[in-house]
Design brief:
18 helices; mainly alpha; Growth Hormone, Chain: A; about 475 residues
């Protein structure tokens, strides 16, 4: 069968479906752990009995550490000049996948009778352990996209398939978790989460191994090929990130999304628990956010060729913002009619966000090329790690701030599904407010900051191809 493999002009296996499936499997593996983060606040406030302020503080602290950890790992990867049998990025992913087998479960140890101080220690220690292995796997994984291919359309396809893997992981957790962890009274059955996390760690490990064994690196990450290559300078690499307008714009988008959407994710769960009185269907409704991605998947390549990534994402975000405004003003009541209106708004927003879901990761791959174009050097690990740093920071600020606001609006974790009517109504408006904030920041990031429109991207790729050819 190996004799039938088609090779490109450089002797590598031609880019194709095998690459897409392998890259998708990598993010599916990541999301077997990452998707569980959405359950943490509910688990620790409703099942373990940790207060809103304490939980909010711990979320922020561990996420700040999480954010700092990413540039450290990224610079470590870039500074690593050793030769590996596979590839240094794939080697780090392999190490991270081993730890993620069990690390995610340590965030959900169901010791409900433990002293409160012990609970604080359990949460922080478990999260730090999980985060260390997740970062070792995820930062190199994100950097790989720019090395598998340098073709803009193929990168858009890889980005789409990464989103397929990511959303596939999300679908599993969105549908299965609410059914498995909530009882008929919409209250959390916390003991089950630990064992579910162990199972998901095993699934993730298998996915990572598939990705590692089926990935081909086609782009030379060492742009400077001389033996006297200067020593890697982490401060300079970080400085290049902030001068890289494309990277800053591509980073601002997920920052807005994480602060807004993740900030109200717990509020959304409680909304289904108490307002709509049906926690078990929350996963099915949340899954609607993926409809747009699957709707646009077959058309990504022609859309990118004809319209351009920046242009298409901008138009889509305008549609999603309109959907969030409707969610705010329509009479979404706690009955079937109100739920139908809520679902309608979610579908419209999903369609608006569809093309963004497909190409968002390729925006950062193009930003890494932009750094080479402008500064004549590549620092994939550091550039992606800085991107990840701000994503992780937003992932901490969003849920922490959201939980504080929920507390100000009357949320009491000890009440579970029995929140007061006023609290329920407050959360009904908090959710669309968070979505609207996210949409607005994303639009600013892509429309006003990100500077690689279709024309500029074409010029950049042409000049880079000429520059790389002259170095051979």
């Amino acid at each position: 069968m190996a004799n039938n493999v088609q090779l490109d002009e450089r002797g590598y296996r031609k880019f194709g479906m095998r690459d897409k499936l392998a890259y998708a499997a990598g993010d599916f593996g990541c999301n077997m752990s990452f998707a569980l983060k959405g359950t943490m606040t509910i688990f620790w406030t409703q099942f373990m009995g940790v207060g809103n302020v304490a939980m909010s503080t711990m979320l922020l602290l561990v996420q700040v550490w999480d954010a700092i950890n990413d540039p450290v790992i990224g610079s470590m990867v870039d500074a690593d000049r050793r030769q590996y049998k596979r590839n240094k990025f794939l080697q780090y992913i392999w190490v991270g996948s081993i730890g993620l087998l069990v690390a995610g479960a340590f965030c959900f140890i169901p010791w409900k009778s433990a002293p409160m101080v012990a609970k604080y220690i359990m949460f922080v220690a478990g999260y730090i352990l999980w985060d260390a292995f997740y970062t070792i796997a995820n930062v190199p994984y994100g950097s790989m996209l720019s090395l598998i291919t340098n073709d803009p359309v193929e990168r858009a396809q890889l980005s789409t398939w990464r989103s397929v893997g990511s959303q596939g992981g999300n679908i599993v957790t969105m549908i299965a978790l609410p059914i498995l962890i909530y009882d008929a009274s919409n209250n959390l059955m916390g003991e089950r989460v630990f064992f579910i996390a162990l199972l998901m760690g095993l699934i993730g490990f298998v996915c990572f191994q598939f990705m590692i064994r089926n990935t081909v690196v086609r782009v030379d990450q060492n742009i400077q090929l001389k033996e006297d290559m200067p020593k890697f300078n982490v401060l300079k690499a970080m400085g290049n990130f902030f001068r890289n307008r494309a990277a800053v714009g591509a980073t601002l988008m997920p920052v807005g999304m994480f602060i807004g959407v993740y900030g109200v994710s717990t509020a959304g769960t409680v909304l289904f628990q108490s307002y709509f009185q049906n926690a078990r269907i929350s996963g099915f409704v949340n899954m609607l956010s993926m409809l747009g991605m699957f709707a646009f998947m077959p058309f990504v390549a022609p859309i990118v060729k004809k319209v351009g990534k920046k242009e298409a994402v901008t138009m889509g975000l305008i549609v999603s913002i309109c959907a969030y405004v409707l969610m705010m003003v329509l009479p979404i009541t706690p009955d079937g009619k109100g739920l139908a209106l809520y679902v309608m708004c979610q579908v419209l927003a999903a369609l608006g966000n569809g093309i963004n879901s497909c190409v968002s990761w390729s925006l950062m791959a193009d930003a890494m090329d932009y750094e080479e174009w402008k500064f004549n050097e590549r620092n994939e690990g550091t550039t992606y790690a800085m991107h990840s740093f701000f994503r992780k920071l937003a992932q901490g600020i969003g849920p922490s701030l959201g939980l504080l606001i929920m507390g100000m609006l009357g949320y009491d974790g000890t009440l579970g599904a029995a929140q007061t009517m006023q609290t329920q109504m407050n959360l009904r408006y908090l959710v669309p407010c968070g979505y609207l904030f996210a949409g607005a920041v994303q639009l600013i990031g892509i429309a006003l900051v990100y500077n690689l429109d279709k024309k500029t991207l074409g010029v950049m790729q042409k000049e880079l191809d000429e520059r790389r050819g002259s170095k051979k």
